[in-house]
Amino acid sequence: MGDSATESNAQLCCESCGEKDAASMEFTHCVSIGVPPRFGYYKEHPTRRFLCHKHAASACLWHCFKNSLFGCWGFPGIFLAPVRTWGNIRAVKERFTVGFGFTAVAMTIGTFPAGFLAILIGLVLARS
Ligand SMILES: [Zn+2]
To answer: What's the CA-to-centroid distance between 18 and ligand 1, angstroms?
Structure first.
């Protein structure tokens, strides 16, 4: 990444495999722990990539996974991580045809900690 050969090809083909049918898109994952600014940390990490359909899909899933791994453990990440996950899916959908299955899998990967926390809170409330 970042060498001159990659840079000159960046507008022409997929940066991972060289496939000609590629497009530019931006993926974002966020890191959220606690409640910033005093009791936590929140930062968004946008990345612009130039990828073919296959690599766009896997990069999207990877960023959705990072959203769920790092993005859901504080405020405002608990609300924004699913929004960023949806944004990552939209970035792929705008350039390539993706099925409902891909959207469902990516959303599940990107939001399961939030759903998991909601279930835990529900269980705690139900037991008390
Ligand atoms: Zn590719």
So the answer is: 6
